[in-house]
Design a protein that fits this description.
32% strand; five-stranded mixed beta sheet; 31% helix; 2 domains; alpha/beta
């Protein structure tokens, strides 16, 4: 299968092209200038692979949560390619991408035993993007949907997952207090691709207009009031 995967949700802009058994990769630290680099990087991969976009079978992208501007850029590029070449799209959660990468890189030794994977990334404004998964026998099952939480309740959320828990996080406060094993994983188009190839066609989007960023809007202040009993 021929797949193009992109990630624009972080400071590093990256693209990966899979053509049969061959893979081609580009990554650049473009900070806030993804829009000036992403199309050139994609063109370079097609030239290197010696193919045209019309032989692709699927477009995969990191739909977030992540950088607001980066996600909009990624959505625009994927929508344009999907519409131009009549291609299906696979929109993937950044938190599931991280969980899958941790499962492959750090949890393989425990693949025969159930292991919880908690993913927590910095959402700024005292918030954390959170999701949890269960890894067992190389399968990844989602336990909680992507959500935006106040930092104050994170440790309680992690403890609820039990002792056999890997924590995937860039949130310093959670890492410092985590009793489970901390896993350092970075998002890239390579990890987007690794997750994409595990998905079946039921998760593909055939309408490019449905390719939308996963912003994960919740009200942190409401959660704090709930904690105070108001």
């Amino acid at each position: 299968m021929n797949i193009l995967a992109i990630d624009t949700a972080t400071a590093h802009c990256s693209v990966m092209l899979r053509v049969g058994d061959n893979q081609f990769f580009r990554s650049e630290n473009t900070a806030q200038s993804h829009s000036r680099h992403i199309l050139k990087m994609i063109d370079q991969l097609f030239i290197e692979a010696g193919i045209h976009p019309d032989v692709l079978h699927l477009l995969a992208w990191n739909a977030g949560p992540g950088s607001f501007t980066g996600l909009r850029i990624g959505a625009s590029v994927i929508q344009a390619l999907a519409y131009s070449f009549n291609l299906p799209v696979l929109s993937l959660s950044s938190l599931e991408i991280l969980a899958h990468a941790a499962q492959r890189n750090a949890c393989s030794a425990l693949s025969d035993n159930p292991v919880s994977i908690a993913v927590a990334t910095d959402a700024r404004m005292n918030g954390i993007y959170w999701a949890s998964f269960l890894s067992q026998a190389n399968n990844l099952e989602r336990l909680e949907h992507d959500q935006l939480l106040a930092k104050e309740i994170l440790e309680d959320k992690r403890k609820a997952l039990g002792d056999q828990c890997f924590v995937v996080s860039d949130a310093g406060a959670l890492i410092e207090s985590a009793e489970g094993q901390v896993v350092a994983v970075e998002i890239s188009a390579a990890n987007v691709m690794a997750l994409a190839v595990t998905k079946d066609k039921k998760s593909w989007l055939v309408n490019s207009a449905d390719c939308l960023p996963n912003y994960v809007h919740h009200t942190i202040n409401w959660q704090k009031r709930q904690l105070r009993g108001h």
